[in-house]
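Q: Structure tokens for this one, please.
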Amino acid sequence: MHVGAKETVVGKRALITGITGQDGTYLAELLTSKGYTVYGLIRGQNNPRKSMVEKICPTIQFVEGDLADQSSLINALEATTPDEVYNLGAISFVGLSFKQALLTGEITGLGPLRVLEAIRMVNKNIRYYQASSSEMFGKVRETPQTELTPFHPRSPYGVAKVYGHYITVNYRESYGIFAASGILFNHESPRRGLEFVTRKITNTVAKIKLGVADSLALGNLDAQRDWGYAKDYVDAMYRMLQAEQPDDFVIATGETHSVREFLEAAFSYVDLDWQQYVKTDPQFLRPAEVDTLIGDATKARTTLDWKPTVSFTELVHMMVNNDLELVKQEIAIAQTAPVS
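A: Here is the predicted structure, written as tokens:
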């Protein structure tokens, strides 16, 4: 469904950038369940992931726009008249940001500024959510990390996120816009892209178990992250925009696990020994690594009454189960395909 002329809709309206990503689809489902009319910003109607979003959330309406194009964002706000804007759009893969640093700065850093400026120009009463990131902490100054921990980003992605975070604070303080930032630590799900290490692991585990792969190449196995479930984390986003006052919140589980632990949980779930299949490959090492991230979400727990509901082990098993089913379907399709 494409947005054309303005229409009168009972209930709240929300515009989501980054609608085709993991968080975008979960957030669209959540808001739809609460009676929202949900609009998704996409670059052109031939977006290859558009059909996937429509399958997950059939009632979603799409509007064309680009975080690199100010006028398109103004047009999108005028066409959809949202009560809330959730800016989830970004060049979101840390590894890619080293290879495309300028593009990352343009979209992940300046994109939030363009959205905020569009809100300032069109309707300052729109509530704005900025997807900040634990990658802003980078080379951490203290453990665990809170809303007051200084930033020391270690990638172009992290640097761009710091700009997006501070410009959100600036527009809140300068123009009185209800602008909140969620400093989200790593959050995963079966919808995670295959380029991310967690999904790469669970998908390859499924392929090895089902006999269509025999090894897995990774980078730093000692990196430690605070991993939560994406569906829990989009609930936190929603809660931030329903609060009485806009603020910044760390969203995390408060537990840290290494990539090695993730491997152990995934492989052991299907009765395999990860050490027989995993090898390290220097090409997957980053120029500057973030070693350990662990968040303190006390503020979100007390102010927003938010808490994670899925444990680390449950999350890993959920992702492996989903990939086992997907790989089985891929195998079945390949077996029934005609031989050319």
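A few notes: The chain has two domains: 13-188+228-251, 197-225+257-288+311-334. The chain has eleven helices and 13 strands.
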